[in-house]
Amino acid sequence: MDHTVYNNPLVTRYATREMSEIFSEQHRIGLFRRLWLALAKGEQSLGLDITDEQIAELEAYVDDINFDVANAREKVTRHDVMAHIYAYGQQCPKAAPIIHLGATSCYVTDNADMLIYRDAMRLVIDKVVALMSRLADFAMEYRKMPTLGFTHLQAAQLVTVGKRASLWLQDFLMDFNNLSHVYDNMLLRGVKGTTGTQASFLSLFDGDHAKVKALERYITDYFGVKGAFPVSGQTYTRKEDYNILSALSMLAQSAYKFSQDIRLLQSMKEIEEPFAKNQVGSSAMAYKRNPMRSERIGSIARYLVSLPMNAAMTACTQGFERTLDDSANRRIVMGEGFLAADAILELLLNVTDGLVVYPKVIRKHLMEELPFMATEVILMRCVKAGGSRQELHEKIRTHSMEAEKNVRLNGKRNDLIDRLKKDPAFAAVDDYDKILNPVNFIGRAPQQVEDFVKTYIRPVLKRYRGRYERFTGEINI
């Protein structure tokens, strides 16, 4: 790494090499050359005068990219595509006359971009499935463990640790579905010519419309894509970029919510993210166990959440068949969107692979609040024994206020049950320990988790078996 210039931390610090390579110039220009090769093969198959020798020459240099020649040529032409046509032609002198035949620059730039985004999206989807696998295991393991629920960040009725995890898991399932929909419907720009009319190709094939259509089908089949946009200007519609970034943004939203919950739980010492043996929590406070991974998830997620607005503005401002103010912008925002998603997923995999649960702390906290929640059961029991619902309700309210005062003002434990035991109005209740069993207050939470994982998650994991298991969640920093 050159430490004397700016280095994008998404590349040097956060995202994986695998994702960075997808957006590398080697991969991008390699796709340019494959697109030129596919175009030549398609045109040859449809009768244009292109020889096998020319095809073989193009094939020989697909990955042997002479970047030095292209870079020098771009300084002269101020046009990156023309510079790479020139560089390819220097290596393939016999094929040089037919490289890019009938095409416009967006034939290689837009089609290559869509192929890059498909590769990147596939990687993102596989990692989301790996994340779902980890969360499903966690949810099932802790599906029966009662814990305080929170609404308004205030203690509410009990849930279970696993049930709460199922809420995170459901969000990521929605993201998986959205990302898969975008991936399944990705199209190439195709073979459309300068303004999308295919006029140049119609001329090459002497007005044969069927051959022009066949050439586009050849290209989409060659790259294993289901089709091309039916119509385009010089570029494919930039609304597609918004679709892509929106799906990634939704993933970031789920990630932020998850990471914030973990940070809150870690502050309560109930659940915490992995903490390495030699990890330093603070340069000043040596005792600290900061949730730095979850904080980093939130930090990068906040950036990714914001990116669709950029793509929306680009889509809005594309005048007529295209303007060039999209190009530099897209080179930054699209790559960084996927790199950010990759970095977030790596962190999510790491955190979910080593979540630490502290059952005794969880039980301590819920038992501090459970007496209040048990009062409804106690009230009903006493009413059935002949008591007045309104009178009993007022007594419970009074005792509850005193118990709450004892907790808040005196810093003592919740003594509501002791107060009720001493009150003759509640003499009908003689099994407080049984009533105060937390399991009585979790409803169908365990069964909900089981049903959800079995019905919605396991089928996805089965379908993706062999694709997601390789992701370990190890991070360098």
UniProtKB/TrEMBL annotation:
EC number: 4.3.2.2
GO cellular component, one term: cytosol
Catalytic activity of the protein: N(6)-(1,2-dicarboxyethyl)-AMP = fumarate + AMP; (2S)-2-[5-amino-1-(5-phospho-beta-D-ribosyl)imidazole-4-carboxamido]succinate = 5-amino-1-(5-phospho-beta-D-ribosyl)imidazole-4-carboxamide + fumarate
Entries under Pfam families matching the protein: ADSL_C, Lyase_1
Span of domain Adenylosuccinate lyase C-terminal: 370-453
Keyword Repressor: no
Family of this protein: Belongs to the lyase 1 family. Adenylosuccinate lyase subfamily.
Record protein name field: Adenylosuccinate lyase
Transmembrane portions of the chain: none
PANTHER family, alphabetized: ADENYLOSUCCINATE LYASE
Coiled-coil intervals, chain numbering: none
Pathway(s): Purine metabolism; AMP biosynthesis via de novo pathway; AMP from IMP: step 2/2; Purine metabolism; IMP biosynthesis via de novo pathway; 5-amino-1-(5-phospho-D-ribosyl)imidazole-4-carboxamide from 5-amino-1-(5-phospho-D-ribosyl)imidazole-4-carboxylate: step 2/2
Molecular functions (GO terms): (S)-2-(5-amino-1-(5-phospho-D-ribosyl)imidazole-4-carboxamido) succinate lyase (fumarate-forming) activity; N6-(1,2-dicarboxyethyl)AMP AMP-lyase (fumarate-forming) activity
Keywords: Amino-acid biosynthesis, Lyase, Purine biosynthesis
A GO biological process held by the record: 'de novo' AMP biosynthetic process
Class of the enzyme per the UniProt entry, highest EC level: lyase
